[in-house]
């Protein structure tokens, strides 16, 4: 009977791992679609997910303290009552697992439906509201996920008191890895988010039904309710995506993001990850983006267009170019643009579905004009088109009389300081590669960059070329006066640092601008978090601090690899599942080896700490010297080895703590809380303010402290005992 129960519980742990990781990845993609695809949102999701999971494991340990109290003979008059209420049982685990399956669908529904209830539809959301919204919408599910894993171990130990805690950790990693692989290689290609949730949770419902000690009518009713909630998400999928204004006429989940088309009267707007990209009635933007740069060239033959605005192709057609290479990463986007008539198919048009920077790096073609039509550099994926490396790459692919054009958000009458610093950083960066740069104000600030002099009188140039326009001819002189152009170009601060891949100055400025927009500051939040961490350090043991630093190392490394992918390869939405899967995959063999060698104790922790420091040290010159020249497999291999070493430490530290129920829950919790703190500080503080290299150095410093702690002979850094 013991073996039968053990097998049933192990199946539930694996199924829970599959379900939770798929739910996590779907949740990340959902928040990216709801909150403009910002990487800081990724960091907040991971932070909330991990911190809530850590709290869930602590709750599980509190519920099991009765076992320890009974063994010491304390509180004898309360044992019977607390044993009945708090004792971990197989049926309670089963009910919790059914609840977990149902919560996965409820969570995605809540994220979609509450967004327009708590925030103005279509508006941007500040840091603190985003943090609060993320925390409370995922709290029920993540607290339960954190609770269930140690609870499963406690149930196993009812039958087998000596059941090893490391084994449940390894089993959970097996399920996590399977869930990551299932999502990354199958579900992301074939199904929508609610279908992914449904398919990932079906095994959990099935094995949970087998877990119950008695399969009564109530059990089947509970399983049926959980199944119905999962299935309801599939039928409500499209209804939950309807816009507040207008109607949804198209929606598709591509591997790169959510592509939707909203119709309001005669206007069609295409959105990618919630960001409006193209409209069929945005004539002025199309004319500005095309005619500002192309008017400078006497004979336009070859054009590279990285992304497109509605109506752009019709404006390009007026120049009768030989070829137009239109690069769009997501095939769904270009297909929708053509199908809804947002852009026109013209002679010589080549549609290329690749990352624009990667395409340019692999191409030998020389262009008369390179036109970048991308949103503000609010993400690392977009920022990589505004760095020194990209500008150098663009210059090498331009003809001697060629022109580069790109834009950022404009201003009305007053140029705010964050905006001035942003355009100054861009100006100083691109000035290293182009002798002449002209800034043109408006709803967007256009950068026209060239080796030859630039003529600011655009309408006159267009008249000479006999090219007609509606907006530029009628409104240019009224909106772009000589005084405004002069004011803008003289506002550039030559002392502002340049923007680079490794030190993304624009990301830092956009992050600061995010807070300035809502008159808030991140200082208070990080101050409170730092104080809580210091208090937490007082009450943990030496082994728990090691796992705290290990969790911070593995998740900090993971977010660095995610950002490096976005900087150098530019398609993080698609690859994030693969990166998470690789990091999960390394934990399982690492934990297996650590469990086999756990008898060597603190010495092994010191060795693995040293290896982690060495590996992170190797990453610095690899990024600095190799960057985008290194193959993807190098970064994935690095992530696997890092996670393997981190996974190795868990069973060793658990063995040093004695392996009791409370020790298991506290070591699980230390690992999760460390991971939460590590990912937040790495992504929101270290990378934006100090760059990728210094972020790696920060993780090395933390692990060095851990190494010093385990090297000392002090018994514990704790003020309380377990």
Provide keyphrases for this structure.
722 residues; alpha/beta; Rossmann fold; Growth Hormone, Chain: A; 3 domains; 7-stranded mixed beta sheet; 4-stranded antiparallel beta sheet; 65% helix; 10% strand; globular; disordered C terminus
Write the layout of secondary structure elements.
Layout: H1 2-34, H2 39-62, H3 65-72, H4 79-86, H5 90-118, H6 127-159, H7 165-190, H8 193-211, H9 217-236, E1 247-253, E2 258-264, E3 267-272, E4 275-279, H10 283-294, E5 302-306, H11 312-317, E6 323-327, H12 331-339, E7 349-352, H13 356-362, E8 367-372, H14 380-383, H15 388-396, E9 398-409, H16 417-430, E10 436-440, E11 444-450, H17 458-464, H18 471-479, H19 482-490, H20 505-517, H21 523-538, H22 542-568, H23 572-596, H24 602-626, H25 632-656, H26 661-690, H27 692-711
SS elements, strand count: 11
Oligomer: single chain
Q: Report the major sheet.
A: 7 strands, mixed
Could you list the spans in which at least 5 consecutive residues all have pLDDT below 50? 66-85, 713-722
| Amino- and carboxy-terminal Cα gap | 32 Å
What does it look like?
With 722 residues, this protein is α/β, with parallel strands linked by helices. It folds into three domains: 1-191 and 193-236; 280-502, 3-Layer(aba) Sandwich (Rossmann fold); 522-722, MFS general substrate transporter like domains (Growth Hormone, Chain: A), CATH 1.20.1250. 65% of the residues lie in helices and 10% in strands. The protein contains 27 helices and eleven strands. The chain has helices at 2-34, 39-62, 65-72, 79-86, 90-118, 127-159, 165-190, 193-211, 217-236, 283-294, 312-317, 331-339, 356-362, 380-383, 388-396, 417-430, 458-464, 471-479, 482-490, 505-517, 523-538, 542-568, 572-596, 602-626, 632-656, 661-690, 692-711, and strands at 247-253, 258-264, 267-272, 275-279, 302-306, 323-327, 349-352, 367-372, 398-409, 436-440, 444-450. It has a seven-stranded mixed β-sheet, with helices on both faces. A hairpin with a 2-residue loop joins strand 3 (267-272) and strand 4 (275-279). Helix 2 (39-62) runs parallel beside helix 6 and helix 6 packs antiparallel against helix 26 (661-690).
């Amino acid at each position: 009977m013991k073996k039968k129960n053990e097998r049933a519980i192990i199946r539930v742990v694996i199924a829970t791992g599959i379900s939770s990781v798929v739910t996590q990845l779907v949740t990340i993609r959902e928040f990216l679609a709801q909150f403009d695809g910002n990487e800081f949102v990724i960091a907040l999701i991971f932070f909330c997910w991990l911190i809530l999971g850590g709290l869930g494991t602590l709750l599980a340990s509190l519920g099991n303290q009765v076992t320890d109290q009974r063994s010491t003979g304390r509180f004898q008059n309360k044992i019977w009552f607390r044993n009945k209420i708090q004792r971990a049982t197989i049926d309670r685990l089963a009910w919790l697992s059914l609840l977990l399956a149902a919560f996965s669908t409820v969570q995605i529904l809540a994220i979609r439906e509450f967004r327009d209830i708590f925030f103005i539809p279509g508006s941007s959301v500040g840091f603190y509201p985003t943090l609060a919204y993320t925390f409370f919408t995922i709290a029920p599910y993540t607290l339960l996920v954190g609770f269930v894993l140690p609870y499963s171990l406690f149930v196993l130990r009812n039958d087998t008191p000596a059941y090893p805690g490391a084994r449940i950790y390894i089993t959970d990693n097996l399920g996590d890895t399977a869930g990551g692989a299932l999502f990354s290689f199958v579900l992301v290609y074939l199904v929508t988010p609610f279908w992914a949730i449904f398919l990932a949770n079906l095994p959990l419902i099935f094995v949970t039904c087998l877990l119950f000690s008695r399969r009564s009518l109530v059990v089947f009713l509970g399983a049926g309710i959980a199944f119905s909630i999962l299935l309801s998400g599939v039928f409500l999928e499209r209804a939950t995506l309807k816009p507040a204004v207008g109607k949804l006429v198209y929606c598709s989940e591509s591997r790169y993001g959510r592509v939707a088309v909203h119709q309001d009267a005669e206007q069609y707007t295409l959105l990618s990850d919630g960001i409006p990209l193209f409209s069929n009635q945005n004539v002025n933007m199309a004319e500005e983006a095309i005619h500002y740069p192309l008017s400078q060239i006497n004979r336009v033959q070859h054009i590279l267009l990285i992304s497109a605005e509605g109506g752009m192709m019709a404006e390009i057609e007026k120049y009768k170019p030989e070829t137009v290479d239109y690069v769009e990463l997501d095939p769904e986007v270009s297909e929708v643009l053509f199908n809804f008539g947002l852009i026109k198919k013209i002679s010589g048009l080549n549609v290329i579905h690749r990352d624009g920077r990667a395409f340019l790096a692999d191409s030998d073609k020389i262009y008369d004009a390179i036109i970048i039509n991308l949103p503000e550099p609010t993400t690392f994926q977009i920022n990589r088109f505004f760095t020194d490396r990209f500008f150098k790459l663009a210059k090498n692919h331009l003809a001697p009389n060629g022109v580069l054009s790109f834009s950022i958000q404009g201003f009305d009458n007053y140029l705010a300081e964050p905006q001035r610093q942003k355009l100054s950083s861009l100006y100083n960066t691109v000035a290293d590669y182009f002798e002449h740069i002209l800034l043109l104000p408006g709803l967007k600030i256009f950068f026209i960059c060239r080796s030859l002099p630039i003529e600011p009188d655009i309408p006159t140039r267009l008249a000479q070329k006999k090219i007609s326009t509606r907006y530029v001819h009628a409104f240019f002189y009224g909106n772009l006066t000589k005084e405004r152009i002069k004011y803008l170009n003289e506002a550039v601060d030559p002392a502002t640092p340049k923007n680079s891949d490794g030190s993304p100055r624009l990301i830092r400025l956009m992050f600061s601008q995010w807070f300035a927009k809502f008159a808030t500051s991140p200082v208070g939040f990080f101050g409170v978090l730092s104080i809580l961490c210091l208090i937490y350090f007082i009450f943990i043991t030496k082994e728990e601090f090691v796992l705290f630093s290990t969790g911070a190392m593995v998740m900090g490394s993971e977010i660095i690899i995610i950002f490096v992918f976005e900087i150098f390869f530019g398609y993080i939405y698609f690859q994030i599942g693969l990166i998470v899967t690789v990091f999960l995959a390394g934990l399982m063999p690492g934990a297996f080896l650590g469990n086999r060698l756990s008898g060597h104790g603190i010495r092994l922790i010191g060795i693995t700490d040293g290896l982690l420091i060495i590996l992170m040290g190797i990453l610095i010159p690899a990024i600095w010297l190799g960057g985008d020249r290194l193959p993807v497999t190098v970064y994935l291999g690095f992530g696997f080895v890092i996670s393997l070493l981190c996974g190795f430490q868990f069973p060793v530290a658990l063995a040093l703590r004695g392996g009791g129920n409370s020790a298991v829950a506290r070591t699980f919790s230390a690992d999760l809380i460390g991971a939460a703190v590590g990912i937040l500080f790495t992504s929101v503080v270290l990378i934006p303010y100090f760059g990728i290299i210094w972020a790696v150095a920060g993780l090395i410093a933390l692990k060095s402290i851990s190494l010093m702690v385990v090297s000392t002979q002090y018994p514990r850094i704790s003020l309380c005992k377990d």
